[in-house]
Amino acid sequence: MAENEKSGNDGQRAWLGTLLSYSGRCKGRMAGSLLASILSVAAGFVPFYAVYRIMTAAMEGRLTFEAALPWLCLAAGSYVVSKVLFGVSTLLSHMSAYTILETLRRDFIDKLMRASLGTVQGKSIGQIKSVFLDRIEGVEVPLAHMIPELSGSMLLALGLAAWLVAIDWRMALACLVSVPIGLAVFASSLKEFNARYAAYMAESNHVNSVIVEYIEGIQVVKAFNQATDSYRKYADAVRSFKDYTMGWFRSTWVGMNLMASIMPTTLLGVVPAGLWLYFEGALAPSELAMCVILALSIVDPITRFTSFVNEMKSMEYAVSDTREFLDLPELAEPDGRAETSGASIALDHVSFSYDGGNEVIHDVSLRMPQGSFCALVGPSGSGKSTLARLIARHWDVQGGSVSVGGVDVRKMPLDQLSELVSFVAQDNYLFDATIRENIRLGRPQATDEEVAAAARAACCEEFVKRLPQGIDTPAGEAGGALSGGERQRISIARAILKDAPIVLLDEATAFTDPENEDKIQRSIARLAAGKTLVVIAHRLSTITSADCIVVIDQGRIVDQGKHRELLGRCPLYARMWQAHIGAKAWAAGSSDREGSSR
Ligand code: ADP
Question: What is the distance between the alpha carbons of residues 510 and 402, in angstroms, rounded to a whole number?
């Protein structure tokens, strides 16, 4: 906890450094943007100087059109140059900002790939979406405008003040006398800014997560007629956010308006002081007029500078939220590929807990030779899926070791492990691409013929034909027309195409109609031919031929052996078998009953 706080504080302090460290690929553009901004400000001074020269000539009674014309042209020309340079600066700063955004988003995804699945799943979808899209996007506007506008405003204000000093330091003082008062009022309204901003972000995060939760759960809300209660929670969060922001606004609007009124009053000091110095003979009329112009011009850059305070704070939060993800611990992996031999699996005294405390796997040791068929069976929650996930290194074990091909999975790169192992899970995620592309994910370089062959082997052909564009139907469009079993066959086709020597299969609990089951079994047989197959078994009749059935209960291996042996000596297995047979007979009976009643 203390660690987290410390790194959070460090993160906040170093936010600008972090942001700039992502600018590696656009250093040149950022420098160019800054340079163009400086040159734009410098060119912006020329019209002032031209006006000054024209005024001087007029007041000395020697102004002619011919004499004024070059100054007018210079003023107009440098105005255009100044605006063009400002445009160039903004263009370059936007390009830099989007490059930084791209780099941040890429690193974000890289990190999610390298962190353990547990670490990633520990974050809510709402939180990931908010950082990945909104927070990172929120950096763009301030970043793109800060470089040209902030640096330009600062330089312009400093340049104008220096010019006033050059004319008469007393005029500079008179001009800037209201600025400290305005800034003092501004600073007092910012007194509790940090604390208030932190509370604002907490409110904003809360309302975000309540909205996501409400929308994600809308099916349950409707099904259980919970509209009133759930809506109240949602409405309360929205109202509380509005109340907080309104309260904050009310507490600052006097200060902000005072500042906005005081800051532009540079003429309050400049006019009386200028007239006095003029009558004293210390100021020429043209100098007096120039001081008035400068005093009016300095207001805008100073007020613009203050408007960045809020935006800088929002960037600070965006960067520290993003860093929370960028600093997630990664699964350690070696650089070079490991020398594996074969496709055996070995677990040696493996212990594991999801939360670092509550152990769910206790001292499990298991050998699965290359090419064998091993089934993990046990009551729900006994640890079957966890063991399979540990083999695929979705998590790292806390005690003991998991080896694949004779090598500890922690001692081989994740890519290499992924080449060796296919995991066919129950919740088969289809990406928003065509069915062909979804299958091709198994081996991106596969030809269309190879994809079609894998689809055939996984018994996908007949339902794919039914779809409007066949195998080229987008999975999203087809989604509603696909049953759970068909979706699983697509992911089996994906695994067939991948052709990894080890297959981990979480047998489907649903879609057990006989026709579907038969097709799934046939496609699994094709997928598993010649492979090391580990099945998380839910229907024992599908694994009676396994080389080894491992019975697991409460995270421990209770027994292991062949079906017949276990029936004779393992009471838990015998009970599960009886229950399964009974359920099958009941299902068969009920379908017979349905048949005869028709
Ligand atoms: P099975 O596959 O045999 O049904 P699991 O391996 O899914 O069992 O679960 C084993 C134990 O680990 C259960 O007590 C379950 O509640 C717990 N568990 C499973 N997944 C997680 C997770 N992501 N986070 C925390 N605990 C989990």
Answer: 30
